[in-house]
């Protein structure tokens, strides 16, 4: 039996998701599509470009969620627009992205690549939301293993940290790689990575409630809990299969 490593799963799910969504009429010519960020989303971006160049998709209008994805779209010939442009009017037909963790209720942690703000603007303004991952991202519950990224206004770092600690979180300011000091996001902000201690082997938090609580703290720009627009989920497995969750019936 063929077995796929993590990178091969990411590539497979990027290709299979786009082609399945085209087959099912959820990706179509003329559509407004949000394109996510990260190594898995990049495979989907490449597959959209391949379907544009083979003539399957025409007149696609993309909104990108990061500098990384904008540069890829420019290099691959995918036309990129702002959410505010007259062509997009603040609303997308579909958005596709990767994730850091997915729980059994289709709640997500995102922001491992620090692109959570634009990713959420795109996700929460899309009629259809799609998440593509390798099998390592499917977990029982959220908040105790992969740290929840919270994008913050730098001047509010200390006050926000105190309030997150009052919500039970341990917070670490994300450091840059090959840069001294903290990561600065595409929007000029900083990231606090937050974890909770498990209780009897389970996460002590409700992701949807915690998303609202954290977003009500002054100076928080956005949290990496994505719980309000439930996605269709494609998960590539090491056994070469792809599990699909929440696909709507025709
Ligand atoms: C970026 C994200 C990514 O989608 C998430 O980190 C997954 O990345 P990858 O596909 O590289 O594992 O949320 O902010």
List the helices and strands and how they pair.
Elements: H1 6-23, E1 32-35, H2 39-53, E2 61-64, H3 67-76, E3 92-97, E4 101-102, E5 108-109, H4 116-123, E6 126-134, E7 148-152, H5 157-166, E8 170-173, E9 190-195, H6 207-215, E10 220-223, E11 225-226, E12 232-236, E13 242-245
Parallel strand pairs: 1-2, 1-3, 3-6, 6-12
Antiparallel strand pairs: 4-5, 5-11, 7-9, 7-10, 8-9, 12-13
The structure holds ribulose-5-phosphate.
Strand order of the largest sheet: 2-1-3-6-12-13
Mean pLDDT: 98
Radius of gyration: 18 Å
Structural class: alpha/beta
Measured by DSSP, the beta-strand proportion falls in: 15-25%
Question: Which terms summarize this structure?
Answer:
250 residues, alpha/beta, Rossmann fold, Alpha-Beta Plaits, 2 domains, 6-stranded mixed sheet, 13 strands, globular, binds ribulose-5-phosphate
Protein described:
The chain is α/β, with parallel strands linked by helices and 250 residues long. The chain folds into two domains: 6-139 and 228-245, 3-Layer(aba) Sandwich (Rossmann fold), CATH 3.40.50; 148-224, ACT domain (Alpha-Beta Plaits, 2-Layer Sandwich). Strand 1, helix 2 and strand 2 form a beta-alpha-beta unit. The chain has helices spanning 6-23, 39-53, 67-76, 116-123, 157-166, 207-215; strands at residues 32-35, 61-64, 92-97, 101-102, 108-109, 126-134, 148-152, 170-173, 190-195, 220-223, 225-226, 232-236, 242-245. The longest helix has 18 residues, at 6-23. Helix 1 packs across helix 2 (39-53) and helix 2 (39-53) runs parallel beside helix 3 (67-76). The radius of gyration is 18 Å and the shape is globular. The chain starts with 5 loop residues before the first helix and ends in a 5-residue tail after the last strand. The mean pLDDT is 98. Ribulose-5-phosphate is lined by residues 36-41, 97-100, 110-116, 119.
